[in-house]
Amino acid sequence: MARRFFASPRLIAFAVLVLLLLTVGRPVLHLVSTAWHDADERQVAPPGTVDDASRLNRTRVAEIVDVDRERAEEQLAELLDRARRDGLGVSIAGARHSMGGHSIHPDGITINMLPFDAMELDAARGLLRVGSGALWSDVIPFLDAAGWSVAVMQSNKSFTVGGSLSVNCHGWQYGRPPIASTVESFRLMKADGAVVRCSRTENPELFSLALGGYGLFGIILEVDLRVVPNRPYRLTTDVVPATEALATYHERVGGAAGTAMVYARMNVDPDHFLDDVILSVLVEEDGPVEGLPPLSEQGLVGLRRTIFRGSAESDYGKKLRWTAETQLSSPGGETVFSRNQLLNEPVEVYANRSADSTDILHEYFVPEASIAGFIDGLRRIIPEEGGNLLNVTVRHIEEDTDTFLRYADRPMLSLVMLFHQERTDAGEAAMEKLTRRLIDAALAAGGRHYLPYRLHATPEQFHRAYPMAREFFRRKREHDPDGLFRNQFHTKYGGADVGSQED
Questions:
Q1: Cα–Cα–Cα angle for 362, 363, 367, nearest 5°?
Q2: ∠ at Cα 122 (118, 125), nearest 5°?
Q3: 3 state SS of 503
Q4: What is the DSSP string of 389-419?
Q5: CA-to-CA separations, 168 to 51, 152, 209, 399, in angstroms, rounded
Q6: More confident residue, 488 or 27
Q7: How far is CA 136 from CA 69, 156, 347, in A?
Q8: Is 387 a member of any domain?
Q9: What gap in Å lies between CA 119 and CA 255, rounded to an integer?
Q10: Residue 190 exposure: Cα atoms within 13 Å on the Cβ side
Q11: The total number of structural domains that make up the chain
């Protein structure tokens, strides 16, 4: 006769506990450990020195000058005159989110533009007049209160208007060229202290050179930016194999009238490296603007930060992050957002706070026809070089017809990558080697690299990517014959014979 075994309630409870621990115990322990160790160990640069977002460029400077908002033009003209007399270089800084010393010159004068942040909206013309030192984090609520929004900006609000114009940023706004396309005009203080207005019809050469000019042609003062109405957007997401991503993108975007924002995020889990894609499409909703919710801070900041930082030094953390992202169709479970709410997130949510490591951005622009081959190259090169890739987003950019040193000379797909690296000589050498291989891959695909980041490209690579650069620097010498405006980007790539040899 068969015997029956009956589990006691205690045994059942124990079995359930074991099952729960097996299914949720590891994720919970991983996240708790990440949060516990996530202390802010960053140090403020000592007096007389400046750094940038890389935390790899601490440099001694002669002077740091805060702009006086009330007498800025007089103050800056006097400063430029003094710098010329004393033979000092001048660099222009805002939030310092570039990573290659673009706002720094050794033993020079650093101008802090942050106080120069006045704003005025001309709603009848859809124009915002804004000081170049204003942060997008101030611009967004200012516009939101009047029912308007930024037309083109980065995906985070932590940057200044002037910095965004100097690097000619782009974002995930669909069907748009870079931010220069939204500039109606700006006022520029030249090296001789004179102030001129620049637009497509007034001083057009300086207009094209200063936008995307990395602060080498003068100090951008006020800017007139075209703005757009704040609208509700509905989010849809698809998780697809990378091989199907382009077809899905064209299906979703081509079939959706009113597409406003689009971006894709790729899987960085080493077991499925760049094999899968989350495609997010935001389409403008019908309905009254008056019904939009008030602007607020993004939700679940602590949890989202912990999940992200938990992927920095852990393959398991990368897998967990992908699982979390693919299980949540949208932040906070919502499907409709205001445009301003989508733009209202600071980089601090994900920032590396460790004393021993840093996170470094790369960006590569590739024609759509070459994207599959370029991604195949990434799958091979990054693991071979031991690159610790935290994030890849893919965006579409229309052709830039405004700036001289342009990266989008035709419609491009951009791949924005975030790498984790040690703050050591060995970590820097490894990143330099990886970067140069990735630049070669982009060049082979008919693309180029973005210039606000680490200056790891050789001069030869830089000039292959930007064949107009020699003329760009020749015109810089023409407009600034004393070489007053300087930074580390100019030092590496801007010499008269730089680019004729490898460094």
A1: 150
A2: 145
A3: coil
A4: EEEEEEEEEPPP-S-SS-S-SS-EEEEEEEE
A5: 21, 10, 11, 13
A6: 488
A7: 18, 8, 12
A8: yes
A9: 38
A10: 17
A11: 1
Q: Enter the pTM of the model.
A: 0.92
* Conformational region of residue 220, where left means phi above 0, alpha means psi within -120 to 50, and beta covers everything else: beta
Structure tokens at 34: 């990440």
Q: For residue 119, give the nearest of 111, 129, 109, 132 by alpha carbon.
A: 129
Side chain identity at residue 141, one-letter code: P
Average pLDDT over residues 359-385: 98
Give alpha helix (H) positions in 290-370.
301-309, 315-327, 339-343
Average pLDDT over residues 255-274: 92
Tokens matching residue 486: 């300087």
**What's the CA dihedral at 359, 360, 361, 366 to 10 degrees?**
-120
Structure tokens that stand for 129 in this block: 């007049």
Look-up of token digits 């310092």: 96
Q: What is residue 402's predicted lDDT score, i.e. its pLDDT? A: 98
Write down the residue that tokens 């967004």 correspond to.
Answer: 140
d(C-alpha 210, C-alpha 200), whole Å: 12
Q: Is residue 284 part of a domain?
A: yes
- Domain of 316, CATH number, reads 3.30.70.2520
Sign of CA dihedral 75, 80, 81, 82: positive
Which residues 6+ apart lie within 8 Å of 415 measured at CB?
363, 364, 366, 374, 375, 378, 392, 393, 394
Q: Give domain status of residue 500, yes or no.
A: no
Which tokens sit at 330?
């949208």
**Mean pLDDT across 265-293:** 89
The span from the CA of 495 to the CA of 450, in Å, is 20
**What's at 95, amino acid-wise?**
A
In the chain, the amino acid numbered 348 is: E
Q: Write down the pLDDT at residue 289.
A: 66
Q: Predicted confidence band at 31 (pLDDT cuts at 50, 70, 90)? A: confident
Asked if 268 and 383 touch (Cβ cutoff 8 Å), the reply is: no
Q: Token digits for 191?
A: 């090296």
Query: DSSP letter at 427?
Result: H
8 A C-beta contact, residue 464 and residue 194: no
- Identity (one letter) of the amino acid at 410? R
Contact 181, 207 (CB under 8 A): no
Tokens of 17: 């506990």
Helix residue ranges, H only, 118-238: 136-144, 161-166, 204-210
Indicate the pLDDT class of residue 24, thresholds 50, 70 and 90. low
Structural domain contains residue 329: yes
Q: If you ran DSSP here, which 8-state letter would residue 173 be given? A: B
| Beta-sheet pairing, 276-284 with 232-241 | antiparallel
State CA 105 to chain mean position distance: 22
The token pair at 318 is 């990368």
Residue 317 CB coordination number (10 Å): 23
> What is the model's pLDDT at position 10?
55
Q: Could you tell me which of 238, 237, 239, 234 has the C-alpha nearest to residue 257?
A: 234
| Rounded CA separation 362/353 (Å) | 19
Whether the CB-CB separation of 273 and 266 falls below 8 Å is answered with: no
Owning domain of residue 302:
232-454
